[in-house]
Amino acid sequence: MLKTKEVEFNYDNQMFFKFQNIDLNSNENLLIIGESGVGKTTLMHLLAGLLKSNSGSIKLFDKELNQMSSYQLDSFRKNNIGIVFQRPHFVNSLTVKENLQLAQYIANKNDNTRIESILKNLNIFEKSNKKTNQLSQGEKQRVSIALAIVNSPKLILADEPTSSLDDNNCSKVIKLLKKQATDFGAQLIVITHDSRLKKHFKKSIEL
Amino acid sequence: MNIFKLSIKNIFNKPLSSSISLALLVLGVGIISLLLQLNTLIKDQMDNNLRGIDMVVGAKGSPLQLILSSVYHIDSPTGNISLAEAETISNNRMVGSSIKILYGDNYKGFRIVGAEKKFIELYKGVIKEGKDWDNPYEVLVGSKVYEKLKINLGDELISSHGLRETGQSHDEGTFKVVGLLKPSNSVIDQLIITSPQSVWDIHETHDHDEHENENEHEHENEHEHEHEHEHEHEHDNREITAMLIKFKSPMNIIQFPRQINENTNLQAAVPSYEISRLFKLFGFGIETLSYLAYLIIIVSGFSLFINLFNSMRERKYEMALIRTLGASRFQLSTMIIFESLVLTISGFILGLLFSRFGVMFVSSLMEESINYNLNSLKILNEEYWLLGLSVLIGVVSSLIPAIQVYKMNISKILADA
Fold first, then answer.
1. What is the rounded CA–CA span in Å between residue A100 and residue A150?
2. Side-chain half-sphere CA neighbours of B18 within 13 A
């Protein structure tokens, strides 16, 4: 399902990254672990189609990302990938529910029952009509997970989802992510420096 | 949810900065639209009352005053002229038709004009109720007068001397309402019209009174100016206030007025010339004010630009998020332009509303003081231009922010977070 080969990337000829090859089958989750500065975020952006590699190949769901135009990448991303960011971002002028509706609109979908079931599943249904800046940190994280899965992606990419959390919450969040992925039939790739997560994944690679 | 709704939500999320740009635009558009409306309405009204009058002959004085008093019934008359002299002019072969009018009295502030019946025909006046006058002291009443003063057919009106309400009333001057006129959207709507003979009669008796009470009058200084138009009856000649003239050929308009002004002690004034002179005078003020309003519109454009520019910086993570959700660069740029257009178009609409209230306000003021009514709220061609300008301001001020969003490097923004 995901196959990368000799992927290289450099920022303005200053920082140079060469990534090891990844080979992930369907129905597998993956933990990518590495110290700061080894290019974790870069790799995640490459996998999400937010960046294009300078050389090598990234094959995701049998599509070669390096050969797609920016417009094709946008379209591929909205149909296949959900992203959970290290720090949650939302459209501040909208409520929780409206943020999810916007995500659906972008992907040409409109399904309020799905929004409700996701919010209920994440235990934040009662916050539906709250503006996102009225939420607690934990609620924000859950809304950002909801945003990542609302369009039924085949792959969820999570960037440092647990780095600022204590052990207890760290374990809660990663379990939640895995549960959501299983519940909605998606694969999960977590990129982190947090070695506490190792025990939660069968498959992991170290950058 | 869609991009358009999102734009509106974004505007309402920052009500303060949005409303400053909006207020500036409303002010700019409102002022220009108000000036356009008033200018057009006043011009229409003036032209409407000008039809069929090529020249006005009256006593020497300011030509503009002569026109304002005897065509528009606003100002005081310049004085009176002798009927005999007026007759000489109306018999001139260049004159097509002439209407003699004379003033003297008012009823509760509305002028009573003695005029030939042709005067009513000139303004296409139609009798709604009652009949034309047959005898002296019978009057026809214009629509605004009877509406405002609730005058009915058969009422008796006791007139006051002079053209203002405060004039001394003469008990002898009792007019009988024999007819009510339909609204004609011209000056006769605010006049009370009677035969010239009525005015001559009433002033003969009045002058008589005045001589008897002369000593008494000298103490009443406040009344003195009411009598300034009063004519001396040195000999028995009858007098009129002015004569409205239509020429046989439009060519005469150049030659004839000059002849009168040079060779007689009468004054001839050409209304179309005086009115265009008047418009030039206050046209300068209008022009200055509209430049100021255009400046305000440009400033509103700048303020809009600064708002959008700042909000793009504040919202860059939002933009990045929307992009990672799969929105294209183009969709995001459209959202920014939408935000700007929603503001400028609502600014335009509110500006028009503002100007309409302004017109109503000014027209109510004018109706109080000079009995004019300006009531037409149609959208002018120039206002469609104003809509175009608002849209242009909306697009131009959002162009740079929209391009910025288009070129945004989402990966870099997200990595910096």
1. 7
2. 18
The alpha carbon of B223 is separated from its chain's Cα centroid by a whole number of angstroms, namely 31
> Which residue of chain A comes nearest to B323, CA vs CA?
A74
Domain ranges of chain B: 3-46+282-416, 55-269
**Residue to test with chain A: of B313, B321, B335, B338, most A Cβ within 10 A:** B321
Look up tokens 């597998």; give the residue.
Answer: A28
| Residue-range domain boundaries for chain A | 2-206
Cβ contact, residue pair B328, A74, below 8 Å: yes
Cβ contacts of B315 on chain A, cutoff 8 Å: 92
Q: What is residue B168's predicted lDDT score, i.e. its pLDDT?
A: 60
pLDDT, tens digit, 9 for 90 and up, residues B309-341 = 988 888 889 999 998 888 888 989 999 999 999
Query: A–B: how many Cβ contacts below 8 A?
Result: 80
| Contact indicator for B351, B29 with CB cutoff of 8 Å | yes
First to last CA, chain B: 27
Q: Does the pLDDT value for residue B104 go beyond 80? A: no
Give pLDDT, residue B227. 46
Stretch B141-170: mean pLDDT: 79
Residue found by looking up tokens 């990542």 in the block: A148
- Tell me the two tokens of residue A87: 């720090």
Residues of B in contact with A102 (CB under 8 A): 1, 6, 322, 325
CB atoms B325 and A106 under 8 Å:
yes
In sequence order, which residues have a C-beta less than 8 Å from that of residue B341 and are 6 or more positions away?
B391, B394, B395, B398
A interface with B, Cβ–Cβ < 8 A, is 41-42, 45, 48, 50-51, 70-71, 74-75, 77-79, 83, 85-87, 89-94, 98, 101-107, 147, 151
Structure tokens at B89: 């002019």
pLDDT mean over B357-366: 80
Any A CB within 8 A of B253 CB:
no
Name the closest residue on chain A to residue B325, using Cα atoms. Answer: A78
Helix or strand run (H / E) with residue B391: helix B381-407
Q: In this complex, do B6 and A93 lie within 8 Å of one another by their Cβ atoms?
A: yes
Give CA separation, B235 vs B82, B231, B232, B238, in Å.
11, 11, 8, 9
Amino acid B167: pLDDT: 54
Domain A2-206 fold is: Rossmann fold (3.40.50)
Record: contact B9-A93, CB cut-off 8 A: yes
> What is the reported pTM?
0.74
- Does pLDDT of B297 surpass 60? yes
Give the model's pLDDT for residue B164: 63
Average pLDDT over residues A135-147: 89
